[in-house]
Specification:
- About 50% of the residues lie in helices and about 15% in strands.
- The protein has a seven-stranded parallel beta sheet with strand order 3-2-1-4-5-6-7, with helices on both faces.
- Helix 1 crosses helix 8, helix 3 packs parallel to helix 4 and helix 6 packs across helix 7.
- The longest helix has 29 residues.
- It has about 260 residues and is α/β, with parallel strands linked by helices.
């Protein structure tokens, strides 16, 4: 595989890496020369992802576990240090999206969304920042959403968690930019992932979902995982060394629309 080298030699942790945006970004990062630690809860899909990347002659190891559990985060950080000796980039991508009206939303579902979507990023940042400080810097990219600021009925916990990610991102950027650690967020709109295909299935098929996408996303289609991956790549690479505390919208103009 020809490498362009924008991440040559960089050690990268990606959570939620077995499918969707995580896997698409992992493939792109490997093309750019990164050494990867893939983290995911789904063992079979994670194994398939690692095999796929190994077949592409890339350096890749994995940690299977729930990112809401401190042990998983600890093991991911340890694996990166043990295998590559450093951590240059973290892409906090793992997330879930159960829905329901606020008056009927179970407390345990709220807690689960916050644990996976937001607390896991706090824990990862808490553990990787000391390692990045040792080496003089690094880049953290957090997966938020256009729904951090624009929402619709039923996305109670999801919207709150994604808004919280933006706050966390800005605080880390302000606290550590002078020490060489950058922290930014990605805010996608509709993306062609397994999660959104399930939304289409629940609505009765993609034909039912497409009018909603066209109404909400002026681009008129879902973004591909690779299109989102290129935005993550920019923030992870040295091309964005003056960018920190930013939220990069990859939403086909959804956030600009009324």
């Amino acid at each position: 595989m020809a490498q362009r080298g924008r991440l040559a030699g960089k050690s990268v942790i990606i959570t939620g890496a077995a499918s969707g945006i995580g896997l698409g970004t992992a493939e792109l990062f490997m093309e750019e020369g990164a050494k990867l630690v893939l983290v995911d809860l789904q063992p079979e899909m994670l194994e398939q992802a690692v095999t796929r990347l190994h077949d592409a002659s890339g350096e890749c190891v994995s940690v299977c576990g729930d990112v809401s559990e401190p042990y998983t985060i600890t093991r991911a950080v340890q694996r990166a240090i043990e295998t590559y000796g450093k951590i240059d980039v973290v892409f906090n991508n793992a997330g879930i999206m159960p829905t329901g009206p606020v008056t009927e939303y179970p407390d345990e579902s709220w807690d689960r969304v916050m644990a996976v979507n937001l607390k896991s990023m706090f824990m990862m940042c808490k553990m990787v920042i000391p390692e990045m400080l040792k080496q003089g810097g690094g880049s953290i990219v957090n997966m938020s959403s256009v729904m951090a600021g624009l929402t619709e009925p039923g996305y109670t916990a999801y919207t709150a968690s994604k808004a919280g990610i933006i706050g966390l991102t800005k605080e880390i950027a302000v606290s550590y930019s002078e020490q060489g650690i950058r922290c930014n967020a990605i805010c996608p709109g509709w993306v062609d992932t397994e999660m959104n295909r399930k939304v289409a299935e629940d609505m009765g098929g993609m034909d039912k979902l497409q009018p909603l996408i066209k109404r909400q996303q002026p681009l008129g289609r879902m973004a591909t995982v690779r299109e989102v991956g290129y935005a993550v790549l920019f923030l992870a690479s040295d091309e964005s060394t003056a960018v920190s505390g930013s939220c990069l919208y990859v939403d086909g103009a959804s956030s600009a629309s009324i």
